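To whoever is on call:

I kicked off a structure prediction for a single chain this morning and the downstream step that reads the tokens threw a length-mismatch warning. I double-checked the sequence; it's 693 residues and nothing unusual in it as far as I can see. Pasting both halves so you can look.
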Amino acid sequence: VSRQLKEEIRRGFARLEDPLAGLLAMLESSSDWKGKGHSLGYCITTELQLWIKAHPAVPQSGTQLKKLQARVLGMLSQCPANLLDPLISIYQLHTADRNYLLEHVSHLYLQGNYKEAAILSIKLKLQPDQDVEKMCTPLLLQDKANLMEDYVAEYPELQKKLLQILDTWCDPSFNIREVTRPYQGLSRYKPEKFNRRVLSKLVFRLLERFNIDPALCPNVVNQRHLRTLNYLFYKRFVEKTMTEENWADHIQSTVGENRCLQGHLVQSLLRHCDMRGAARWARHCRVPPEMLPQAVAEELQKLHTQDRVEEVTKADNYEASKKKDYYQLPIPRENIHFLQTWEETLQCWEKVLQPGQVVGVDMEWKPSFGMVGKPRVALLQLALKDEVFLLDVPRLLEQAEAEGEKDKLPHFIQMLYSDAAITKLGYGMSGDLSSLAATCSALKGTEKQMQGVVDLLAVDKQVDGLSPDQSHEERRVRQPEKGLSLLVQHVLGKPLDKTEQLSNWEKRPLREEQILYAASDAYCLLEIYERLCKDPESFGLGSDLTESLVGKQSKKPRAKKQLNKQEAPSPSGQECQGPRTEPSQPPAPISPQEFSVVCDNMLHGLGRYLRCLGVDVRLLDNEDDHRKAAEIAREEGRVILTSGLPYQTLRSQVGEGRCFSVNCSEKAKEQALQVLKHFNVQVSPSDIFSRCQ
């Protein structure tokens, strides 16, 4: 706004007998002020606000002010957001009769102006005198969760009340339609945003934002624990990628003494084990005998200590047989140092912080399986050519704080990452550093100061999957490995053994298997880097590998391990198998509009990608049984897209060629291309984004 206009506005106010009434008359008769941006009406209003501060005698009181307040209240629900605060300030609406303000907001609400009623309530701080459920429900149904969060942001009691309401709605026995029924004629009504899965995610987000104890929301916590239990059973008994000790740690910490979860554990044990196995695990997890079926309780009485000895022996034999199939550390065990004191750690620093040093860096944290909060680093691994240091991060932070030097560890880590003379190797460094920042707030800016880093995740995207030791025939069989393990297999010939990845890394002492896994994860980075630098052309990389990568990162680094350690994915999504049905001749070409599918619940990414291309897609919810896909396919004539084990079950429930198994180790784009090619779907530019996203 020009200085000349400002001066003219102020002269105009000085000439007016009643500037407040004058502004209101102007706004009521003008349409300009209702537009977005800085209109003339906005400029005049903000100038009056400043002018009043310079002329304290101007504000009115008594009957005249009340009349003006009544007029301005009627205007607030229509005015742009940037005018709300100036008008509330000029007309002193905070001093108006509270019951009158509440009545006005209630009138807005009854007219169906829920958003406007909520915004005005926030501005006038009316929330403590309103019904939080009544005010927030229509906001959720209109997909305005952010406004709902703002509504309770300054009121801890309302936050707790809202979370308890949302948790009640997540109870499996609660009929959500009772909540939505009164609002079915609502404009911008989005009932698909109002289901237990979406509400559960919202509850966890609010618990974290407002720092509230999750115990306040037993329904969503229990459901998350149930999903975790199902995931752990899948990892142990179907995928067979979790050791017995590792699995037992997580089962015990998940179930605890919760009767509901203990009951679910018993049922799962009966599905996956024989009676003897179910009884043994029930005893191990301290399930009360009265909760066990009679046959299991009888088996429990027959158990002897010898069972455990036999099982451990079997496990040891199994571990020995696996060694030849996986990457093995080339350094002796005594060169792996687990550091829990500062005296030991200072000696480690002296070796690591040497100019010209190359350091493999990795971190481990306890998987939270989607519970509240970001993961906190429990172990920091630093690998040098001849030895590996495993730093017990919680213990070292605790000791440093007790000595009044809480920035000791962050200082070392910042020195390491900011020193261009030391080459740091990682895989998905962005994810590691965000976990470090959550563990220690002093490390929040570390990523911006990094120098001399090589993120092998960026290299992984460029590496040709054929290792020099593999033949082209071997390459055609896609490996079930992924991430760093797949890169290790491509470059060094054998994959990493990832059975300890989902360990409880906070439990002390660490098991020997955990120590070896943690050391291998960091040390393999040194070997990969050395091999790629020696022979980059064999892996499809440029000859100037060292020069081009040191100090650079991938533009969008993917958070390493966040999927595995944070969200428990649908169990079936872990089984990676290619298509089983090859048609005898290619089908006739069809457009995306003619192609309708139902995606199993481990393929949401594929479903969303296909929808972007114009395909008619239905997605199963995470809670849905895989068999629901067959029901939908039969009723609506859709093709089932699934992966892994459910394929065998589902293909028998629909016609030939109506069920397709995709490779779940590939990204959504590659999966979509596979589906389009198989069904001969021809996508044109006009199909893209032709459906509502």
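Update from on-call: the warning came from a stale cache, not from the record. Cleared it. Sanity check on the structure: The chain has four domains: 3-160, 220-304, 336-464+483-547, 592-679.
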